[in-house]
Design goal:
Distance between the termini: 46 Å
Shape: globular
CATH class of the largest domain: Alpha Beta
Oligomer: single chain
Number of domains: 2
Strand order of the largest sheet: 1-2-3-4-5-6-7-8
CATH superfamily of the largest domain: Phosphoenolpyruvate-binding domains
Number of helices: 10
CATH topology of the largest domain: TIM Barrel
Number of strands: 8
Helix content: 40-55%
Bound molecules: 3-methyl-2-oxobutanoic acid
Radius of gyration: 20 Å
CATH architecture of the largest domain: Alpha-Beta Barrel
Strand content: 5-15%
Largest sheet: 8 strands, parallel, barrel
């Protein structure tokens, strides 16, 4: 696991880091071959369960999905999102990180927040837990409509401090979510650990997207999402073929029968 993180760190300023989400083994097997990091994000709350907030996602849900993803991930670094209210203080964060790692065999945890969680990150790292940070829009604590960050000087200063504090605390990388491109460029230059952007421009060291969004399985209107495929169409077509075969008594054929 250490060497996987070293390889990711080495990519800074050299080649882009690819990160994708997975919530189950079948998707994990596909993305593993093409990612440096596979993230079991708490976005699964909205993508799979239709929750209006990731705050409803529990640690047990994250653990069960990560166990499934673990079966499909052989080469990438596997990161689990610690969900809301599972890392409110150092001891809670350590207890829950240890439980998540023990039960899922994942390699690292992701926590949302910058300066606010720096002592928690420090404590995890001191206890040999690898941590990916996450700043900008942090859905677990965001209030109201999601608005890009880093527009005014106060926000810019805060983002830079968040990033520096996470680096100092020992995080091995930071997700920058919905941050204006000038400031994500500045942060990426200022810190020595990789930045992984989502809605944070090409200036980051790597990119992350929710796989269900990019394959067209989940409908979303976020500006930062690009559909690279339309898997829903393919699934629909297979399902219709199946339905017609059943109705026409073509399936199951002798070949599919005992
Ligand atoms: O929950 C998630 O999937 C995430 C990524 C979008 C970065 O945090």
């Amino acid at each position: 696991m250490k060497h996987k993180i070293q390889n990711i760190l080495k990519k800074k300023n050299k080649s882009k880091i690819v990160c994708l989400t997975a919530y189950s083994k079948n998707i994990a097997e596909i993305v593993d071959d093409h990612s440096d990091i596979v993230l079991v994000g708490d976005s699964l709350g909205s993508v799979l369960y239709n929750y209006n907030t990731t705050r409803k996602v529990t640690l047990n849900m994250m653990i069960e999905h990560t166990k499934s993803v673990r079966l499909g991930v052989k080469k990438s670094l596997l990161v689990i999102d610690l969900p809301y209210n599972t890392y409110r203080n150092k001891s809670e964060a350590l207890k829950n990180s240890k439980k998540a790692i023990k039960e899922t065999k994942c390699d690292a945890v992701k926590v949302e927040g910058g300066t606010r969680v720096k002592e928690i990150v420090k404590h995890l790292v001191k206890n040999k837990i690898s941590v990916l940070g996450h700043i900008g829009i942090t859905p677990q604590t965001a209030k109201g409509r999601f608005k890009s960050k880093g527009k005014n000087e106060t926000e810019k200063r805060k983002l830079i401090k968040d990033a520096k504090d996470l680096e100092q605390s020992g995080a091995f990388g930071i997700v920058l979510e919905c941050i204006y491109s000038d400031i994500s460029k500045k942060i990426t230059k200022l810190i020595n650990i990789p930045t992984i952007g989502i809605g944070a421009s090409v200036n980051c060291d790597g990119q992350v997207l929710v796989t269900d969004d990019l394959i067209g399985l989940n409908e979303t209107k976020f500006r930062f999402v690009k559909k690279f495929g339309n898997i829903k169409k393919n699934i629909k077509s297979a399902v219709i073929k199946y339905k017609n075969s059943v109705k026409q008594k073509k399936f199951p054929s002798k070949k599919n029968s005992y």
